[in-house]
Predict the 3D structure of the following.
Amino acid sequence: MTREIPRTLQILWGEAPRPGGRGLNRERIVAAAIEIADADGLAALSMARLAERLGSAPMSLYRHVANKDELLAFMLDAAPGSPPELPRGWRPGLEAWARALRDVYYAHPWILQVSDGRPPLDPGQLAWLDRGLAALDGTPLSQRDRFEVVTAVLYFVRGEAQIGAILMRGGSMEDYAGLIAHFVRPERLPALAAASDAGIFRPSADAAESSFAYGLARVLDGVSVLLAGD
Amino acid sequence: MTREIPRTLQILWGEAPRPGGRGLNRERIVAAAIEIADADGLAALSMARLAERLGSAPMSLYRHVANKDELLAFMLDAAPGSPPELPRGWRPGLEAWARALRDVYYAHPWILQVSDGRPPLDPGQLAWLDRGLAALDGTPLSQRDRFEVVTAVLYFVRGEAQIGAILMRGGSMEDYAGLIAHFVRPERLPALAAASDAGIFRPSADAAESSFAYGLARVLDGVSVLLAGD
DNA sequence: CGCAAAAGCGTACGACATACGCACCAGGGC
DNA sequence: GCCCTGGTGCGTATGTCGTACGCTTTTGCG
């Protein structure tokens, strides 16, 4: 029934004693790794570069981290920080939660590449999940309903953050609009051509923000239908 | 205004002539690469393994593919195939579209790792986007509304498929329920503890399917609010 | 002060993507 | 029949990566 508890998780939940080393330690390593990934992207994070930044030899890192996958798990736990306090009411609460989460993904775009959506087990990510569920306290929804709702919002935020983050990273939307217009012919892709002609892809200053607000409103509307129907 | 058109896209849209080689050609290479990624995961796809499967030398592949990134772009274009015909009516249409798309992700889970949500420009993915938009033909929604709606559904499908695919790949849900129950204490994560106590994470035969249906209904309810309010 | 355990690290290996340049082959013009 | 040209296949070699292994240095404790 209770099987082997993975070492990585025991460390994260404080069940394994912290190795009390000087100089190098897990926190410093993870913090430096996050800095590299934030600044130059996940691909730029190699054990060699990380060691260089820490002023140590590459192999020294392995005293504190079993392998690179474990390092990534630690980063995933640490990067999001603590979830914010939410305003009262399920809708303002979920909306604030969604926005805060989006900000996390904007600040650390690599999170979306590392966690392939694998259900999280570390305290850092579960704290956010807990906060999302808490936004629905006081509603008549069942536990299962609440979970599905939070999940749906989470997926939306992740999807939106993924393209938002890419657009912010220099991939200009202007190129995109132009390329779509160049390739899409009404006889092959009529609906898309109509969208393109209507200027959907034309860049605008607040495109990311208004898309986010709009889509989130749609999802939350769906939740309100659920609440009204009860 | 119109800047350089990337070589990869020119090939995909048929603007560059197909190199008429014998033996090796792009189609065979891409098909074999997809087979490897489907069977053994993206990590198992190396140029060396791919060449081995094709009975050629690794470097021969580079006559048909500029580099591995371009190979991945080709795979992303080819893997989804043609989108299905959709039933009439925006809601049945979007629902069928969402399910077909989920099936694509289940069949080729690596798609979600390769495309970081970067807006697609290849004909294969744009055909799916077009079909999703077409499901909303005949509704009073503006082009922008339609696009946002399809995007929201797309994000949900991607999120759901991501964890669904992982659960199918042997990561048993039983472990997850047990580990959550082991680590989550009500005083630290009360909402999550309540969810866990209610058995949310207990594995069930149709968990993936019912989550999908439920969440999708929520998102589509949001769309119906939009249509009703007009 | 002595010693065991822990921390740091140098070397080495196997996988990987891919630059470069040579060998082979087909087809077309003479 | 012969050569020449452009494309195709490939062998070699380079640099990067993660990390296994075992040695050396440091540290905390009795």
User: Anything to note?
Assistant: The CA atoms of residues 9 and 113 of chain B lie 20 Å apart. The first helix of chain B runs from residue 7 to 12.
